[in-house]
Amino acid sequence: MADQTLLENDAPLLIADGLSKSYGKIAACRDVSFALYPGEVLAIVGESGSGKSTLLQLLSGQLAASGGHVSYRMRDGVTRDLATLGEAERRFLFRTDWGFVHQDPAQGLRMAVSAGANVGERLMAVGWNHYGRIRDTASDWLTRVEIDTARIDDAPRTYSGGMRQRLQIARNLVTEPRLVFMDEPTGGLDVSVQARLLDLLRSLVAELHLAVVIVTHDLAVARLLSHRVMVMKGGCVIETGLTDQVLDDPREPYTQLLVSSILPP
Amino acid sequence: MNAPAYNFAYLDEQTKRMIRRAILKAIAIPGYQVPFASREMPMPYGWGTGGVQVTAAILGPDDKLKVIDQGSDDTTNAISIRKFFAKTAGVATTTATEEATVIQTRHRIPETTLSEGQVLVYQVPIPEPLRFLEPRETETRRMHALAEYGLMHVKLYEDIARFGHIATAYAYPVKVNARYVMDPSPTPKFDNPKMDNCAALQLFGAGREKRIYAIPPYTQVVSLDFEDHPFEPYRFNAPCALCGAEKSYLDEIVTDDKGSRMFVCSDTDFCEGRQAEGHHGSLSAAPYKEKARQQEKNNG
């Protein structure tokens, strides 16, 4: 049994192989390859327009790549190319084994529907048909992301920015996914709320053994959350390595610039 | 007399063939919304342009047409459509449910059990059950194609969270033939069980939205619900004030400005039939008539 677990942790969960995407003559993403292992947090950093978000969309199958492949190890242990999955399979994967946290919670939430239903939607989508159980699970998750369960019937538009983001995280994690994509999850939040959110994310990631691909331009977020960092510029990965290594001892001039642009605390 | 200026049943033959093709496809895939090239009809959208086109396409010279609006045969909409087909198709019309071969309806299913050989044509304002949950039509079509109906339960969940029970009282979503989720048009949910395993063919026409869908005879139609909050048809807890019926769907009629009200069957044909059979309720004319007759006798 222990060997089995070890073996499972040994095989990569998500493999990108020579991923490229061009919009006409503009190459948004060029020849990106990496492997992500279960429980690993990978940060993709870089300035605006460096191709981070395009890469995230390619990885999560929302955009068709111009070249290269993305493979994912399904729950049955078989690694499959995402491009060969049928639409139904891909969408099922997206709402069960994956999560996607948007920068703007309004994109990831149903703003007019109560928080309980927002969390419960994925459960109902996979066939849960018992109101009481759905509600219990939803309130359990609200507690886990530190939202007062008394607000379970309020719509997220009555929530503050930080609460919305935490609700979005609960909504994504309720089906216990193995891989979560995050697109600037702390963008637009003030510093203290950011810190609290990062704290929450870090404990959830460790607790649930989540693999995460997180896109951010905030190096502090990368340092706090991620194990590995990929630095992008002009659609290319220019440097990759362990977070501490890249941020403390950057090799590339661009990374050096990026790191030195942070004000010392 | 029966104006030869019109083609039979108003629409030209090519249009009727086009609509019949859509109807055939709809019957072949129960609950699936088939697009069709809806025509302008001589009535405003929302008054039954879809239903009228379906009726025009299936009507034959031997058919007997009944039209009801909110269960009633004598409201403006019902009378106008009945007259429209009497004039343009010269078909016989009736108000009796048993006699009719084609029944066009808005908001109700007749109380009398329908039989084989009858066709019930619904007027549908919004054919898409997911409309107010997912605004993108491209997305809702994909959801139907992949049978992703979790969102429909989100609506029911919201009802329970807000009101303690499923408060959706009309246009209550159903699953047809264990595949497509369908909007049964704004009929009260009281009528939902009548759609299940119904002997008659049920056709739905949405003119503005250009969609036709169907439930073939003897098809399973299940109202969506939760295990711990099962579907319950709703009905005012009162007998009909005119015919005393205990199991029919009732309209509430306000009778003065002091809060008095009476409940009467919304299906007028059903109610009149029962009264003719001698049933009467607390406010029916019959007791007064009897009293008057009694008085006449005493005076005389």
What does this structure look like?
The complex is a heterodimer of chains A (265) and B (300). In chain A, helix 6 crosses helix 7. Chain A starts with a helix and ends in a 5-residue tail after the last helix. Chain A has 265 residues and is α/β, with parallel strands linked by helices. Helices cover 41% and strands 24% of the residues of chain A. The mean pLDDT of chain A is 90. Chain B has 8 helices and 12 strands. In chain B, the strands form 3 sheets. Chain B has a 7-stranded mixed beta sheet. A 3-stranded antiparallel beta sheet of chain B has the order 7-6-10. The longest helix of chain B is centred in the N-terminal third of the chain and has 16 residues. Chain B is globular and about 75 Å long. The mean pLDDT of chain B is 92. At the A-B interface, helix 3, helix 5 and helix 6 of A face helix 5 of B.
* Percentage of residues in strands of chain A: 15-25%
Q: Give the ordered list of helices and strands of chain A.
A: HEEEHEEHEHHHHEHEHEEHH
Strand tally of chain B: 12
What is the straight-line distance between the termini of chain A?
46 Å
* Coarse structural class of chain B: alpha/beta
- Biggest sheet layout of chain B: 7 strands, mixed
Mean pLDDT of chain A: 90
Largest interface: A-B, 24 and 16 residues
Radius of gyration of chain A: 19 Å
Q: Outline of chain A, from the CA principal axes?
A: globular
Brief rundown of the structure:
The complex is a heterodimer of chains A (265) and B (300). With 265 residues, chain A is α/β, with parallel strands linked by helices. Chain A has helices at 2-10, 52-59, 87-96, 105-108, 115-125, 131-144, 161-173, 191-208, 219-225, 243-248, 253-260, and strands at residues 14-23, 26-36, 41-45, 67-73, 79-81, 98-101, 179-183, 211-216, 228-233, 236-242.
